[in-house]
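Dock zinc ion; give full complex structure.
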Amino acid sequence: MTPLKKLSCDICTTSFTGDTFDAWFKQMQAHYMNDHADVMASMADKPKSEGEAWVAAAKKRFNAAQ
Ligand SMILES: [Zn+2]
């Protein structure tokens, strides 16, 4: 069984738990759309590579979390 990991948002202190990065990331996406819509909007104007770098950094954080 994969242990549940708890990791906070990279902008605020809201935390989400998930057993996989995808499960955690799905919650993060919903949270971003609700609470950080302005960040989402500013990201939309940036090159795709920046969004991918953000996802890669988030994945690294998730893998490093206990
Ligand atoms: Zn947040």
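Observed: Residues 16-64 form one domain.
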